[in-house]
Amino acid sequence: MKSILFSAIGLLGVATLPAAEAGFVAVQHDGGVRITVDGKPFASYVVDQANKPYLWPVYGPTGVPMTRAYPMQDLPSEPKEQRDHPHHRGITFGHESSGSDAWTFPENIKDLTGGETFAGGGDTWHERLTFEEFSKNPKQAVTSGTRMKMLASIRHKSFTQTISAKDHALIVEVCEHLDGAGKRFLTEERRLTFRSTDATRIIDIDQDFSATDGDVHFDDRKDAGLSIRVPASMAVDSKKGGRILNSDGLADKEAWGKPAKWCDYNGPVEGEHLGVAFLNHPSSYRYPTPWHVRTYGLFTANPFAQKDYDKSQPDGATRLVAGQHLKLRHRIILHKGDAAEAKIEAAFERYAQESK
Questions:
Q1: Would you kindly state where each structural domain of the chain is located, as residue ranges?
Q2: pLDDT tens per residue across span 126-139
Q3: Is CATH 3.30.70 correct for 2-352?
């Protein structure tokens, strides 16, 4: 597995690793940034391969990959990977229906997954490959073609900082959210901080959204937020020992759509029991966030949905007036063992005390 993934890194133009040295190294290149720690690969931040930036591959504390490889790489049948939802790329952010009211669709279009309508804006959750796959089904071809026209993008504009230090690496990026017509409706500053301990690798993702170009809306959608697609072997549905657990003790399917301080997904990966803990900082929008976490392997922190989780709840659409800001604050801990062994509750308490 590792040799295959190192080949994949080479395809991204980051094959050559620095000589082993203490600390973090963040190397900027045409397609993004490569992060290593003590000379070993940690993650690659990719900005030019889809309609939004994403982290992949991402390696845990024991050196094995902690996100699904598809669609960036189509692995052989063993170990078997799921080939569903090609828009679930590593670690990424998107929203199915956000934008400016100034750009509207010529007609309301039914969502392929639930019958909702789109009042305007664009879709950065899905990508072109999503609807190319759907269009292979004759029954979905027309709808897929229409939905393709709704695709929006989160475009990398610039890296304003890339820092390498002994105890961390930092990437600061400016992104522009563009509607289906290519017009900017939102500006985002994204800070990614990478740290590690003997038993963990840690990624802080701090997102600041600014309504720089007029009013912005985020529709109430379950398909939105900061996401991880965990390895297939870790997924609960693989029935190999994978488990979801949130800070309130809700497990597996019961954790879906429920707000919690943190949520953890753990299970076997290449013969080891490993986990991904996702922490929501108290300063983050609509803390504690509901979790769009699925037993097949999707793991998303999504504060933008209320009614789409529970039809008895009021519509959770969010609007930013021109000049307003919204912030999301999350910590991802790649760890050994399950949530109890990794002491995730104690890790959250420390995180919650930090100024964000």
A1: 2-352
A2: 888 777 776 566 66
A3: no
